[in-house]
Give the backbone structure.
Amino acid sequence: MKSQKIIVTGGSGFIGTNVVDYLLNNEYEVLNLDINPPKNFTHQKVWEKVDILDFKLLTETLKNFNPQYILHLAA
């Protein structure tokens, strides 16, 4: 079965870090969108610096990754 693609906004915060860790450990394809780099160095490969208030960049990133789900944790 093909892994599901999930975007996590705010994936560099405390809760987001734990969610991204869980998703990666369970073989989901994850993209963390956050203005801050991840606290967990191993998450660098799935992080993109995106400010969710930047509509153009956010829309472009969503189209390129084409996720099945978005988990919004950004504050």
